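Case study 2.
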Amino acid sequence: MNIYLINALLILLVVRQIREHQLDLRALAVPVLAVAAAAVMFLHAVPSGGSDIVLDLACVLAGAVMGLGPGGRPLGRAGVEAASMWIAGVGARMAFYFAATHGAGPAIAAFSIAHHITGSAAWTAALVMMALADVLTRLAVVYLRGRRVGAQPAPAAAASIPAGAGA
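Prediction:
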């Protein structure tokens, strides 16, 4: 399967979440499974030589920041800002891949040498881990906010209405 098609499917996955939907196991599992499938296809090893771990951590941090995005609600609904951040992340990875395979390879290789990154496998691992961090952080934030909102007591105004007063 083409990398552009996979990225387009990942974008559609988030665009689909703009529509409000019940936050259940399926809603949590589908994004994780989609990114896990991409990881299986592209993440064959995590190189650890040179500055590869620094690159991995930088990409995981960037993914986590994108995954934090704006606030969530118990109903799973990606706001336009959250969807835009996800699309920007996927787009940046697609642009990097396109540049690497269409002329920027020597510049990326020079950067990699200068910064002690061991090669293309290190870049692949870092970018896949960025996507995983993005999805997992977003799901964790939405889940935790949903639990927090679900644990809050009923608003005082609703609790103070006497029984039968509205009938």
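Confidence is low (pLDDT under 50) at residues 157-167.
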